[in-house]
Structures are given as C-alpha cells and as structure tokens.
C-alpha cells in the first residue's frame, strides 16, 4: 500500500509493528468486518524470500539490514567487557521470520508466577487454550517417530487447527538428533513428558515452527497476514518507521489520537479512533513509548523529548536468556556446518537440494534440547536453599531498589523445585566462537580444523536485569541496551554449575564415541574459548564469563505488573498513564520463562486480541479466517 492510500483512512486500531505479535492481533481484530486496522512495519515484506523460508538458513539473515535491526549492547562487565550483537527481525513477521525455529513451552510455575505477581488471568491454566489456538501440531509420519523421538508428546494437549504449523524435521534430521536423546537417557534422566504438562525436565528433540508439507518456515507473516492480506478492513504499510504516538493530555490519562511515522525521510500521520497498539518487541516498544513522551522524566529530558506521561517502568526490567557454550571436536564421519562452509561445492549442492526439493541440511533446523533441574545439575547439594537465599539477600542489600515486585524470591524458590529447570541445554551440529559475540552471523562456526559441535547451557530465568532507553529524540538512532549479563551472583553461580553438568555428557555414550580426543584421551575443545575446560566451580565461573552470549530472548522492558511494583502496563496490557495505548509483545513479560519464547508471544498476542475485543473466553476450535 502506498503512503497516500494508507494515510487517506482513519483506523479503529493502529498497530505499531508488524512482527510476531502485531500480525496476530491484526488478523484477529479484522475478523470483525466492522473493525478497521492499520499496521505500520519498519521492515519490508519478506514473504517467499528463500532465506526466510529455508528452516535452517536463519544465520544468513543476521547482520543484513533488510532483515535485521542488528542492535548492539553496551559493553558487558559480566562477559569480560564484550559488546553483544542482538539480531532482531526488521521484516514483516518480526523475529518469527529470523529465529532458530525452535519451539519450547513455558513451565507451569513460569506462568503462575505472573498471576502471583498480580496479573489476573495470566496463569498457566489461563494461557493453555491460547497455546492450542495458534498452533497446528503435525505428528511424525510412520517410520520417523523413533528417529526423532516424539513419543513424549501428548497430542491431546496440542492445537489442531491454528495458523502456526509445528512439527519435527523427519528425514532431514542429523546425527545430533539421533545421539542426543539416547545420551540423556544414559545420563540417568527419566523419559520426558510433554512440556505442555507443565514441566519439561529431560532431554529430547523439540518441535519446530516449520510447515512439514512445504518444508518452509511457519511464521506470523506467512500464517496470520498472508491469508488475510486482501481483507478490506486491514491495511499494511511497510518500510515505515514509527516516530511517535500522538497523545492528547486530558485531566485524566493521556489519550492516543494517532501515530506519526517516517517514510523516505518524510513524516506522515495516521489517525487512531479507538486504540494504538504497540508491538515492537522488547527493544522497539520502549523506544516508541519514550519517543512519544511516555517514560522516566530524567531519560526523556536527557534525550530532548517532552514528558507527557511519567511511567517509571518503561525501558526497565530488561531480562535475557544467556547461552554458555562448549565447543567440542567431533570425528569426521559426523558432519557439521564446517563441512558446508569450507567446501563451496557442497554448499551449492545443499542450496540446490533445498531450492529444488525442499530437502537437505537447510530443510532441518536444530531440535536437540533438554531442561535440567538443580537436582539434576548437582545431585549432592545439601545446603542449596541456604546458598541460594544468601546470594539473593546479599544482592538485595547492595541494590535495595532493584526488585520492588519481589520477583527474585519467586525465582529463587523456583530454582529449588525439582520440576523446574535451572538451565536449558541445546546441542547444535556446528562449532562456535564466542569472541565473535559482536557479530551474530559469525558466532556459529569454528575457524579451527575439523568438525565441531556446540553444546550450550542456557539460563531459564535470570535474576540480572538491565534496561533499554532512548539516547536521542531521533527514531532512527538505536536506543541504549544494557542487559546486565551475569550481574546477579546467583546467575553466575547457576550457570557455572550448569556448564559443569553439561560437560559431563561428553563422557556418556553415544555422545562420548562421537567426540574427538587427544592422545591422552582428553576431549578436544576449541581454543577460541580462551580457557581450558573447567573442572571446578571457580574455573567454571571464569569459563562462563568468557563463553556467554545471548540466546536472543530479551523480555520485560514494558513489564506487566502493578504500577506500585514497578510495572509499565496493566494485566490488560494497557500502558499506565494512558487510556488507550496497549503493549502486546515479549516486552510485557514480568518474569522470564524457560526455553524459546516465540510460543508464548503467539499465545499472549491471541489473548491480547481477546482482551481488546472484550471477550472473556477463548474459542480454540477456530483458526484464522482463510485457513
């Protein structure tokens, strides 16, 4: 749609951000033909782009301006001063267009935490219908179930008619997907239950957001926007950067009347008759609100923005999952990504296999994962509760204003629960180099000779929290991002114990026989780690600081909490101090959840659409119109 056509109309709802959540909300609101919706997206339309559709081509998107915001953090003291690159989707569909396609599930306690913190209607049982509503689960075909080990899933807990397709890679699975579940069972883990049961302890191949028939990425633009693109009440403008929400200050809360945006250097305005819905994700949503004059007065004034609504929660509470990697040599008969990259002929064959037949290594994204409780990470830990509590208490004394909602006590309690995960473990058939943290596209390959695999211990619910704030009134200037990686001593402690546990799998079959060893029988580890493999807790803490990067799951910067607890939005997703501005995306997570977050973003967007419609209950039998 042209700018002139887009601005020639007024809309009931203007959605700022055509990403994972924004397109869900747009599709659901426009099911009512009497409701008009305008969506403003900063990126372009990538539908039918090979690099997006190819399930295992996502690393080719990172750092490219037509797909990626390519954000950078400030230097992180907790990771030996490194600046981290954050790939975030700047394309229709947002980060659902560029993520790893891995599909996890929040635990029961993760979501019950949200309700306990004061968010009515956001507990695990409240959200389960929305998980089923957005998905269609495709079980393995005959003969494939044993190969990828899908027997732990309970089809009764899964959606059957939603827009997003989820499945296993099937015939395209790699040696990692065969070796990993067997190794976990031999390590003494019990067979896993479906994570939808509320707990995910164990190791397995998890689902992917991939259409199994077409072998292409199943994401928000493909499944929520494309079938409904011709609706007369849905308008989309791409390559348009939101510069501010227009606010009318009244005696009570401020009212949004429209949205200002920039296209080709020119500023335009579109009117919103009912609501403005901010769906920019954990970086862009607080940025848009602050540019509009909603936020902390000191931050806004420093950036040269007039204060319209004081809201201290905007941009605070940034929380991310970290990934600490072990990069281990594997025998040549177990091919990894290095085999593709070092041989242009093989790379070309792999691309042709996907383009012509939707087959080969680019058709199958990673799936091998696991979730370990503290009792699994360290079976003998008699003073665990006292130890954890002492670290939480000491931090609270040093930073007395850091946790007004009391979240750290909730999270500390959760770490002690044997049904809850202290870490997620991810196994990838590629090497890695953490010194390339600044450039995400260069992390997952090893420059060293031979084949390599990466096994990462990833945090599930970090206590370290940072911020995202504007530093300029210019919307094209990226905000300042400080995730405060490993600032809380409990995060360092838990990740150190987790990496020692993860390393123990190297001595368990069948993984043990896959790995290369030196003449003395020691595992070959990549030199890029900058230190030897750890054997003690102190060595592991040092190793964590040198080998940790983002897992690309930032949340929390418009936290859904009571205002007196530091919240930015209410449990109806409405921005405090406004009458008709909502935020619907991962920035509202009040606390983090385990695993890959895209599933919860879809679920909360479905719930958000129902809240806007004023619906009390969800109907899980209907997909989006057009399916």
In short, what is this structure?
The protein contains 19 helices and 26 strands. It is 27% helix and 18% strand. The protein starts with a helix and ends in a 14-residue tail after the last helix.
Determine the structural class based on helices, strands and strand pairing. alpha/beta
> What's the number of helices?
19
Helical content (DSSP H or I, runs of 4+): 25-40%
By DSSP, the count of extended strands is 26
What are the segments in which pLDDT stays under 50 over at least 5 consecutive residues? 620-627
| Proportion of strand residues | 15-25%
Going by CATH, the homologous superfamily of the domain at 3-47 and 221-319 and 556-613 would be FAD/NAD(P)-binding domain
Which of globular, elongated, flat, extended, rod-shaped describes the shape?
A: globular
CATH architecture of the domain at 3-47 and 221-319 and 556-613, please?
3-Layer(bba) Sandwich
CA radius of gyration: 23 Å
CATH topology of the domain at 3-47 and 221-319 and 556-613: FAD/NAD(P)-binding domain
CATH top level label of the domain at 3-47 and 221-319 and 556-613: Alpha Beta
Q: Give average pLDDT, whole number.
A: 95
Q: Characterize the biggest β-sheet.
A: 7 strands, mixed
> First CA to last CA: what distance?
24 Å
* Assembly form of the protein: single chain
Binding site for FAD: 91, 242
Keywords: FAD, Flavoprotein
Protein name: Alcohol oxidase
Cofactor: FAD
């Amino acid at each position: 749609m042209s700018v002139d056509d887009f601005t020639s109309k007024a809309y009931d709802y203007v959605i700022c951000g055509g990403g994972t959540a924004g397109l869900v909300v747009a599709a659901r609101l426009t099911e009512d033909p009497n409701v008009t919706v305008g969506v403003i997206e900063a990126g372009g339309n990538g539908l039918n782009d090979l690099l997006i559709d190819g399930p295992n081509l996502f690393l080719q998107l990172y750092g490219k301006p037509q797909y990626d915001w390519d954000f950078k953090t400030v230097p992180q003291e907790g990771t030996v001063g490194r600046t981290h690159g954050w790939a975030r989707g700047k394309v229709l569909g947002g980060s659902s267009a560029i993520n790893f396609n891995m599909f996890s599930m929040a635990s029961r306690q993760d979501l019950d935490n949200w309700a306990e913190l004061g968010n009515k209607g956001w507990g695990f049982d409240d959200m389960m219908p929305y998980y089923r509503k957005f998905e269609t689960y495709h079980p393995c075909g005959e003969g494939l179930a044993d190969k990828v080990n899908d027997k732990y899933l309970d089809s009764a807990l899964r959606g059957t008619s939603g827009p997003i397709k989820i499945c296993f890679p099937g015939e395209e699975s790699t040696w990692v997907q065969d070796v990993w579940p067997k190794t976990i069972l031999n390590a003494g883990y019990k067979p896993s239950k479906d994570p939808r049961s509320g707990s995910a302890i164990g190791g397995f191949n998890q689902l992917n957001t991939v259409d199994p028939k077409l072998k292409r990425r199943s994401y928000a633009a493909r499944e929520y926007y494309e079938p409904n693109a011709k609706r007369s009440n849905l308008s989309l403008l791409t390559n348009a950067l939101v510069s501010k929400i227009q606010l009318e200050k009244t005696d009570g809360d401020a009212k949004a009347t429209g949205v200002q945006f920039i296209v080709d250097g020119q500023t335009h305005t579109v009117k919103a008759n009912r609501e403005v819905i901010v769906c920019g994700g954990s970086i862009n949503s607080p940025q848009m609100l602050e540019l509009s004059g909603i936020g902390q007065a000191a931050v806004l004034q420093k950036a040269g923005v007039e204060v319209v609504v004081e809201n201290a929660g905007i941009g605070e509470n940034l929380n991310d999952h970290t990934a600490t990697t072990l990069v281990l040599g594997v025998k040549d008969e177990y091919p990894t990504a290095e085999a593709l990259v070092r041989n242009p002929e093989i790379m070309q064959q792999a691309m042709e296999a996907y383009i012509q037949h939707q087959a080969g290594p680019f058709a199958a994204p990673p799936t091998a994962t696991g979730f370990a409780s503290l009792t699994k990470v360290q079976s003998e830990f008699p003073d665990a509760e006292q130890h954890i509590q002492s670290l939480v208490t000491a931090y609270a004394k040093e930073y007395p204003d850091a946790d007004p909602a009391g979240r750290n006590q909730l999270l500390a309690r959760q770490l002690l629960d044997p049904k809850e995960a202290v870490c997620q473990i991810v196994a990838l058939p590629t090497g890695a180099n953490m010194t390339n943290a600044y450039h995400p596209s260069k992390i997952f390959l090893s420059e060293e000779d031979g084949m390599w695999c990466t096994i990462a211990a990833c945090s599930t619910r970090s206590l370290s929290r940072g911020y995202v704030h504007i530093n300029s009134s210019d919307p094209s200037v990226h905000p300042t991002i400080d995730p405060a990686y490993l600032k809380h001593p409990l995060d360092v402690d838990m990740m150190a114990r987790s990496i020692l546990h993860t390393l123990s799998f190297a001595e368990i079959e069948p993984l043990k026989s896959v790995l290369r060893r030196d003449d003395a029988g020691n595992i070959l580890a990549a030199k890029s780690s900058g230190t030897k493999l750890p054997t003690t807790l102190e060595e592991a803490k040092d190793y964590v600081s040198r080998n940790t990067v983002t897992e690309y799951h930032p949340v929390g910067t418009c936290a859904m909490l009571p205002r007196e607890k530091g919240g930015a939005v209410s449990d109806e997703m409405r921005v405090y101090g406004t009458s008709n501005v909502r935020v619907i995306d991962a920035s509202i997570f009040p606390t983090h959840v385990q695993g890959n977050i895209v599933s919860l973003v879809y679920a909360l967007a479905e719930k958000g659409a129902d809240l806007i419609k004023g619906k009390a209950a969800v109907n899980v039998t209907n997909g989006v119109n057009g399916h």
